[in-house]
Design goal:
By secondary structure, the chain is mainly α. The protein has seven helices and two strands, in the order H-H-E-H-H-H-E-H-H. The chain has a two-stranded antiparallel ribbon with strand order 1-2. Helix 2 runs antiparallel to helix 6.
Length: 176
């Protein structure tokens, strides 16, 4: 991901991008609901519970927020992969493939933001629930993007955008 930092800074600083991704999440949720035949999953998908209290959220460090979203997104991506193995109907399979691409992109992007040394380890256990309806996976993704991810980017923008916009470089790199 060569342009990783440039695109991550742009994503955080240009509010139109997160709004675009929220719109896409809503569209995917709507399209999967229009699929004719969506059988229940025989093996339930384990989805993260993505609700949160804003006051609690605001009190967390950006690194804690990032790790929490990474855990949620990793669990969601795993649920999508599991559902893909069970859905053979073309419309549902196509929507799951698109959801996988979007969610996995966010997962990879979030790994580029780090305030602590060392690689991200997926050894987390977010609060979760089981879901047998494919539409629940799309709902969870939309709620995650519209909630935690949007607020996280908003918080990052306060620091990144006022400092980092000048040359598009990471403010931490200028101190060297």
């Amino acid at each position: 991901m060569e342009e990783g930092h440039a695109s991550s800074t742009r994503l955080v600083c240009d509010n139109r991008l997160i709004q675009k991704y929220i719109g896409e999440a809503k569209d995917m949720e709507k399209r999967v609901g229009q699929c004719q035949v969506l059988p229940a999953l025989s093996c339930p998908a384990v989805l993260p519970l993505v609700d949160f209290r804003l006051q609690q959220w605001k009190s967390k460090s950006n690194e804690t927020k990032r790790r929490e979203i990474l855990c949620d997104m990793a669990l969601l991506v795993g649920a999508v992969v599991g559902a893909q193995g069970q859905v053979t109907e073309a419309c549902g399979a196509r929507q799951l493939s698109q959801l996988y691409q979007h969610a996995n992109s966010f997962l990879l992007l979030l790994q580029t933001f780090s305030w602590e040394a060392g690689p991200w380890e997926p050894g987390c256990s977010p609060r979760s629930m089981e879901q047998t309806h494919i539409t629940g996976i799309f709902l969870t993704y939309r709620q995650l993007v519209q909630g935690k991810l949007r607020f996280f980017f908003h918080d990052l923008a306060k620091d990144l955008c006022k400092q980092g916009q000048a040359g598009g470089t990471d403010p931490r790199c200028r101190a060297r």
